[in-house]
Specification:
Strand content: 15-25%
Oligomer: single chain
Bound molecules: S-adenosylmethionine
Largest sheet: 8 strands, mixed
Strand order of the largest sheet: 1-7-8-6-5-2-3-4
Number of helices: 8
Structural class: alpha/beta
Order of helices and strands: EHHHEHEHEHEHEHEE
Helix content: 25-40%
């Protein structure tokens, strides 16, 4: 069933895109907001519980602040924590992130499986970025946190990469802004390219469910239709938003 989780301050919780490590609110308040968002995902049947290691989350955050080159990002501290927590709770063996730019969104997901925030053993955590220069920078960033190669970034079109990935996909994160006028409208194409290989219980995360809602209309209509995905929650706690759906 399609649901909404919304905080009263979602439109006032603003970050500086070029200063992503700056705190916007006290840590306890960030943790409480994300706990409430996670509870809404439990209520919708998307997650089994809301427990994750908060110290490891902070170790992950510190490593990204110390080691990543991030020219800009729209991932707020709340979103960074929510992405980490969803992955820490769902523990996807295979995760694909589509449209990762410098890798910050990718590592917000993959950081639960590699580096100082790791809390489970993942198999393949793959970021896909269509611009070779950006893919190279993202891969360079990721290597500083994960020397093992479990997490890696490939320069490719996410639709092709999804089609070509033959193993089960346990979590898909969507953030590609397409080309040829498609923009974020490409999300549905990427999902459809791999949905048949997503087992029941797999999670789909779509960034910009709020500020790109118009462009994402086809995607959002699709995932909110119970004949396609079992449940979907629009998490609105910052101006970008995240649609969280379960297969
Ligand atoms: C705007 S960025 C996402 C930034 C992210 N929301 C953040 O705050 O850090 C979207 C990225 O998707 C990439 N992209 C666009 N179309 C793509 C495709 N078909 N496959 C893979 N990446 C794609 C773009 O090159 C761009 O780097």
């Amino acid at each position: 069933m399609a649901e909404v989780f919304r905080t009263q301050d979602w439109d006032k919780y603003q970050m500086d895109y070029r200063n992503p490590h700056q705190a916007i609110e006290p840590l306890e308040s960030e943790v409480a907001v994300v706990d409430n968002a996670l509870r809404s995902l439990v209520d919708a049947g998307i997650l089994p519980h809301i427990d994750y290691d908060r110290e490891k989350m902070l170790a992950h955050r510190q490593a990204v602040a110390d080691l990543f080159e991030i020219p800009w990002t729209a991932i707020t501290p709340r979103m960074q924590r929510l992405l980490y927590a969803i992955n820490a709770i769902a523990k996807p063996a295979n995760m694909i992130a589509a449209g990762v730019f410098c890798g910050n969104t990718f590592i917000s997901n993959a950081g639960a499986g590699v580096g100082p925030g790791a809390c489970y053993q993942a198999k393949q955590l793959i970021g896909i970025e269509i611009k070779p220069d950006e893919a190279e920078r993202a891969e360079r960033n990721v290597r500083r946190i994960d020397p093992t190669g479990v997490a890696r970034v490939l320069a490719a079109d996410a639709v092709d990469a999804m089609r070509g990935f033959k193993d089960p996909i346990n979590l898909l994160y969507l953030d590609a802004d397409g080309d040829g006028g498609k923009g974020k409208g490409i999300y549905l194409e990427i999902l459809e390219a791999g949905l048949s290989r997503m087992p029941t219980g797999s999670i789909v995360l779509a960034h910009n469910s709020v500020n790109c809602a118009d462009r994402l209309k086809h995607y959002l209509d699709y995932v909110r239709d119970e004949s396609h995905l079992r449940a979907s929650v629009n998490v609105i706690f910052d101006p970008e938003g995240l649609e969280v759906s379960v297969v």
